[in-house]
Amino acid sequence: MKSEMNSLPIFVAAAESVSFSQAAQKLHVTRSAVAKTIARLEARLGVTLFNRTTRSQSLTDEGTLFYEACRRALTEIRSAEEILESGKLRVSGKLSVSVPVLFGHLCISPLLFALAKTHPGLELELSFSDRPVDLIEEGFDLAVRIGTLSDSSRLVARKLASHSMVLCASPDYLQRAGTPASPDELVKHDAVAYIRSGQLLRWRIRNEHGGITEILPSARFRMDDMQAVRDITLAGGGIAWLPYWLVRDALISGDLTQLFEAWPSENQNVYAVWPHTPHLSLKVRLAVDKLVSALPAMMSAAESRH
């Protein structure tokens, strides 16, 4: 394979010269070395690459086709070598990413913007939606998703981080309705629930035995926006299961009260998801690497308890 690759620059030099002798001078080798290399290449390919006469040489139709492909390939190789030698990966083109609305604003957008700043050729297109988009049908390069992923052989997923969830309610609601002593009593209370793709998000909390209790809330208020769930909960609408980072300030100020601190909720995982391809594009790889390296620390800061 190495000898085959080494023959390509010799072939290109010969194609761009009026004779093998001129190509040999450019390459600082003998004319015989050029002629033997071309002969071996023609034998391996099973075609004649050059029309030869005693006075001139020219490419055959097959030779012209092969020359164009080799020239492009060598240009790409030289470009890659220059990038690696410079010590900086260059990426260009549009990166289309689907992100959850609130989490995207808080964490993903700043990190991808920072990535774009270091790569001036990168165009960033963010779509903020809690709807689980079809990446392939809708043309997204990458998506960030939270919670359990659906099975799909067409997609690749990588865990980026996780965030904690809390059950909480306003002091006004708890004074009016009472504070549940255990998760079993949640069925007696009003719930403010998050709905995604027409399905209520089930609450997953740890029980006294260390296992997970899954609750389908009997929700009086249902909405597909986490900010709205938080606002209704602050207004006394009932009990909600929300990301800690979203209600952190309200819990610290006392506007919301956390329930069942002895039985913490199960954390929600955050994933990067992209279409399965034989070769991952550089722009997607750089985006995923950025999120993997920076998101955990950002989540830790967002969930700081003081």
Automatic annotation (TrEMBL):
Pfam family, one: LysR_substrate
An annotated Gene Ontology molecular function: DNA binding
UniProt KW Metal-binding keyword: no
Domain spans labelled HTH lysR-type: 1-60
Highest taxon above the source species: Bacteria
The keyword Transferase belongs to this UniProt entry's keyword annotation: no
PROSITE patterns associated with the record: HTH_LYSR
Keywords: DNA-binding, Transcription, Transcription regulation
SUPFAM superfamilies: Periplasmic binding protein-like II, Winged helix' DNA-binding domain
Protein family (similarity comment): Belongs to the LysR transcriptional regulatory family.
Protein name: LysR family transcriptional regulator
